Amino acid sequence: MSELVLSHVESGVQVVRMNRPDKKNALIGEMYAALAEAFAKGEADDEVAVFLILGSQNDFSAGNDLPDFLSWEALTGSVADRFIRAVAGAKKPVVAAVRGAAIGIGSTLLPHCDLVYAAPGTRFHMPFINLGIVPEAGSSQTMPLLAGHRRAAEMLMLGEPFGVETAEAIGLINGVVPGEDLEETAMAAARKLAAKPRAILREIKALMKTPAEPIMDRLSRESKVFDQCLKGEALTEAVSAFKEKRAPDFSKCR
Hints:
Number of helices: 11
Radius of gyration: 19 Å
Oligomer: single chain
Helix content: 40-55%
CATH architecture of the largest domain: Alpha-Beta Complex
Number of strands: 8
CATH topology of the largest domain: 2-enoyl-CoA Hydratase, Chain A, domain 1
Shape: globular
Distance between the termini: 27 Å
Strand content: 5-15%
Number of domains: 2
């Protein structure tokens, strides 16, 4: 794997770090390929329950490296497209810790994450209109769903940057965390997720990611999964732990 992307597994968490701090972690093709590879490996690894994506040093990501971006012939089928689809389609939870610059893909990636924490002073910016291109990573859908059409229009049509207060208000981030505590807070959340029954985590995420449907259809969909859970080892362990007045241990419930 490229040294521009660092990845390791710790306590059931695959930590994936963009590592190009001298360029504010701006992404080039080599990095997109390595990021996509890290997510593919993590999805296939039973030891991995959760992904945690980070930037190095003072920034999350300044988006696409402009000289590299100008060499693209198409987004469709590119390594960037592979990475975006890997995160958007991840079956396992994805946590992100964001600071400094969160530009372009550094912002549009975040709606596909399940938990996002940001440091004070983080600047979010989706300046696609100013480059003469449309937004990517599904943000023409995810941002209006989060922020509403008018506020999303400020972000996508005017290309206006915004800070953590707005990001928290629209639900793009879960909360603002002091910079010195940011990565540990995100890692603690990832570890907490990894300690949950993993198959159930994946089922909950799949249900939450299922497109909106008539409520009676959703009740039926949930009931089918619920019925399967009634026969599962996670419920057995939870009930045993309750009876024995101890914390449940879901480590064998994959």
